Amino acid sequence: MISAEDISREIAPLSDEQRALVLDFARMLRERDELVLPEGPLEGRTYEAWRIRLESRSARVLNEQRRRQEAAGIAPDGAIARSEWPDDMAPSSKTSVTT
After folding, report:
1. pLDDT of amino acid 99
2. Residue 56: which of 64, 66, 45, 44 has the closest Cα?
3. How far is 31 from 12, CA to CA, in rounded Å?
4. What integer best gives the mean pLDDT of the chain?
5. Distance in angstroms (rounded) separating the CA atoms of residues 35 and 54
6. How many CA atoms lie within 13 A of 68 on its CB side?
7. Could you report the per-residue pLDDT of 36-58, keeping only the tens digit for each?
8. Alpha carbon distance 99, 96 (integer Å)
9. Low-confidence ranges of the chain (pLDDT < 70)
10. Three-state SS for 61?
11. In the chain, which ranges are continuous DSSP H helix?
């Protein structure tokens, strides 16, 4: 098994950006391993702990996605303000989709 000292020695010559990428990758792997379905019967404390980890990660992922969408100026719920609709989509429009 690789120790923390081994990892520190290996990433020391990397740039700050490269170290950040390595650490982000390591976090992603740890989170992935925490979400693996437990072996054995899906009941009791083992199952409940797994379910809580899964729900917690799901909430974090959804909140992060919502934050990214809001930062990009996109409505997280997918709604588009009527003021941004083209004229032919206005309720008073006489257009049709019939071809």
Report:
1. 60
2. 64
3. 24
4. 82
5. 6
6. 6
7. 877 777 788 888 888 898 898 88
8. 8
9. 82, 96-99
10. helix
11. 4-11, 16-35, 44-71
In angstroms, the CA 72 to CA 68 distance is 6
Six token digits for residue 94: 């006489």
For tokens 């799901």, what's the residue?
A: 58
Closest alpha carbon to 19 in 7, 30, 31: 7
Helix (H, G, I), strand (E, B) or coil at 70: helix
Check residue 41 and give its pLDDT.
Answer: 76
At position 64, the amino acid (one-letter code) is E
Give the residue extent of every domain in the chain. Answer: 4-89
CA dihedral of residues 33, 63, 21, 52 (deg, nearest 10): -20
Q: Contact, 88 vs 95, CB < 8 A?
A: yes
